[in-house]
Amino acid sequence: MTFTNCYIYTNKTGTMFPAGAQFKAGGYTYAYFTVGQYQYPNNTNAMEIYQFGYNIGGSPGTFAGQIIPTYCAQLTGAYVPYNFTAPELEPSRFADYVSVAPTIFPASVVESNSVAGRTHLSQFNLTWPTQLGSTYRVYSAANLLGPWTQAAYGLGYYPTNGSFTDTNSGVAKFYRVSTP
Fold first, then answer.
1. One domain for residues 12 and 75
2. What mean pLDDT do residues 127-140 have?
3. If you average pLDDT over every residue of the chain, what do you get?
4. 69: preceding bond cis by omega (within 30 degrees)
5. What are the percentages of helix, strand and coil residues in the chain, rounded to 5?
C-alpha cells in the first residue's frame, strides 16, 4: 500500500524520533505513522511500521544504519496483519520512504477520434511526467466542482511518462492526477 503525507513517530502518541535516529542493524525497528496532520495529540489512529534491519540469514540489510525520516511525502510497503490482529506496514526498500515531496507537474490532454458535432464519441489521452517508482491515480468529473470519480489507480511507470486514455462518453470532462 502507498500512503502520502506521513509523519513518523516512535510511538502511537506522537513522540518524534531524535535527530539522526537510525534503523537498527541485525534486528528490527518499530515505528508508527499518521497520515496528514503533524503531531496530532494522542493520535490513536497511528499505524505501525515494522522495519527489518537484516536480510535472510541474519546479515545486515539495506535499512541497517539508515536515518529514520520523520516525514514522508510517500510511504510504501506491504500492509499485513500482525498476529492476525493489528495491521502493520513493511517497506522493502529504503526508497519506499520518499522524504522529498515531488514537484508540481504539468499534464496534457489530447482529444482524438472525434467526429464533428459529436464530442461524446471523443477519446481523451492524458499524459504527465512521472517520478521513478511512484504510482498515480486519475480522477475525472463532468465539472470542476465534482463529484470526482476515480478513473484509474495504481498507475506505475518506470521511468517513462504516465498516460491514461479515457474512452467513456461525456459532453464535458475534467481530469485530476494525484501526486505520488
1. yes
2. 73
3. 76
4. no
5. 5, 45, 50
Residue 38 — very low, low, confident or very high, per pLDDT cuts 50/70/90? low
The letter for the amino acid at 10 is T
User: 89 and 31: one domain?
Assistant: yes
Rounded CA-CA distance 66/29 in Å is 11
pTM of the full structure: 0.57
Q: What's the whole-number mean pLDDT along residues 111-136?
A: 63
Q: Choose among 18, 46, 23: nearest CA to 33.
A: 46
User: Domain range spanning residue 148?
Assistant: 108-177
Q: What is the DSSP string of 65-101?
A: TPBPPSEEEEEE-EEEEETTTEEEEE--SGGGEE-SP
Question: 103 in a domain, yes or no?
Answer: no
Say if residue 47 is in the same domain as residue 27.
Answer: yes
Residue type, 96: D
